[in-house]
Amino acid sequence: MGYKQEHEAFVSDNPGTTVIHIALTGIACLLPVYIRDVCCVAVPVLKKFKDNLWLNYLIDFITVIIPLQFFMSSFAQYYIQCFVSGLLIFIVIFSIKLQNSKIKSVYSDTAFSSVEMGSRRPFINYYRAYANVITAFSILAVDFKIFPRYFAKVETYGTGLMDVGVGGFLISNAVVSPEARKINSPDRAWVSILKSVKSSMPLIVIGLIRVLAVKSADYQEHVTEYGVHWNFFFTLATVKIACTVLFCAISPKMWKVAGVLIIAAYQHNLMYDGLRNYLIKGYDGKGGRTDIIDANREGLYSCFGFLSIYIMGIQLGNLVMKKREKVKDWILLCISLSLVSTGCWILLYCSEKYVEPISRRFANLSYLLWMLAFNSMLLTVFLLFDIIVFYLHYVTTVSQLKESPKNDKKEDTSVSNQDTCDLISAVNYNGLFYFLFANLLTGSVNMLVKTIYQSDLVAMAILTTYMFILSAVTYILYKRKLSLKFW
Questions:
Q1: Which of 41, 173, 280, 325 has the fewest CB atoms in 10 Å of its CB?
Q2: Phi-psi region at 481: left, alpha or beta (left = phi > 0; alpha = psi -120 to 50)
């Protein structure tokens, strides 16, 4: 067996893991950024490091990215311990600072619910950026033995951490889409469709470049993921254009219904019209790929499921993007998101038991419910920690006002005065570039290094260097306010 075939076998036929394992790992990965945020509130002198470009970057990288790397590799089997340890560190820092602040001031918890928290919160940026960061680390880490095989994409049925990628990416973009923010386009339908095609052209071009690069370099590829020529970028472009066409054709009141009908019809075809057997075995019944459609059947047909996921993500965005100002409004959103997540987890259990197991390869009903449950859960946790950090920030500000009554209370308690992670903000600022640069670096590493033969120590060194370069370039662009989105 040549190295290419050995590598392809290495990333194929993975067993997957449980949705609980993936959920707790996801939460453990987000805890470091909130530990960093609560430390900045607890130790105000840390904010002064923002004046030093590279020192600020190193602090963010060490406190946010490094723990994430270990949680998804060396410590993956200790996910419960990672989750509990991160939570305890956060609670201890929070409790010590909160106690000290309350001792210094007369403070009423009942007044907090009426405090203006602002209409824009860091949790949305954090949520969207983490989808990119986890994906960027995974696409290279999966080529090393240090990355657990059960986190890699499964073949047909099951759940791996990397199976969250495409569904999570679609939902994270749908949540902040114009449709989710209810920004109605004044253009005619055909103009809106042309604009959608134009904005999707970079994705199509990138997809074509990737196909040509992979084929010409004889690069290893997992064919059953999307097909012979299809890839992630084509799926994103197809879903975006199809969604625009659909929304131009029907009333906004019917969008949610359309999402349900599409996934219902698609799931029916999977189960009763032979589509499932075709996707697995092809026209010849032996897994062959006889023509262009047959060669890319997984990527083409899964677009129906991913379109439904995107539409449902827009409905989730309608809930999240409503204008809110006071703390009590954000608390109500947190409760609503937790109810949505709970409902989707229950539906997922029923779907797996009575319909079909989760399949990212098919993007079936169970996969859709898993994506909605998982992403609404992450949004709930992000928002919950956001509120807790803001609470500490506000209490600390009140104590400072008590000591210095001349300060402007409105200015000191504004959301702009709450420190957030610049490195995570940088990822959001140039999200597509970050993802493309990650793919370019991943390809380069795989061309230069026989990854599956490397020891854990060498693998972690390469992965840390990779994440450092990727993060540093993105961070510099953000600090210089250079956006590479030109379309």
A1: 325
A2: left
User: Reduced to 3 DSSP states, what percent helix, strand and coil does the chain have, rounded to the nearest 5?
Assistant: 75, 0, 25
> Tokens for 176?
């902040």
Give dist(CA 292, CA 298) in Å, integer.
Answer: 12
Compute the distance between CA of residue 307 and CA of residue 316 in angstroms, rounded to an integer.
14
Burial class (CB in 10 A: 0-12, 13-18, 19+), 132: buried
The H or E element spanning position 381 is: helix 365-403
Tell me which residue has tokens 């197809």: 238
Instruction: Give the angle 218-220-224 at the CA atoms, nearest 5°.
Output: 120
pTM of the full structure: 0.92
Q: What is the pLDDT along the chain (487 residues), one digit of tens a residue?
A: 677 788 778 877 788 999 999 999 999 999 999 999 999 888 877 777 777 889 999 999 999 999 999 999 999 999 999 999 999 999 999 999 888 876 555 555 557 778 888 777 889 999 999 999 999 999 999 999 999 999 999 988 999 999 998 999 999 999 998 888 877 766 678 888 898 898 889 889 999 998 998 888 777 777 888 989 999 999 999 999 999 999 888 888 888 899 999 999 999 999 998 899 999 998 888 888 888 999 999 999 999 999 999 999 999 999 999 888 889 999 999 999 999 999 999 999 999 999 999 999 999 999 999 999 999 999 999 999 999 999 888 888 776 666 655 554 444 444 446 678 999 999 999 998 999 999 999 999 998 999 999 999 999 999 999 999 999 999 999 999 988 865 4
* Helix orientation angle between 365-403 and 327-354, rounded to the nearest 10 degrees: 160
Cα distance between residue 22 and residue 374, in whole Å: 9
In 3D space, the residue among 323, 373, 325 whose CA is nearest the CA of residue 346 turns out to be 373
Burial class (CB in 10 A: 0-12, 13-18, 19+), 181: middle
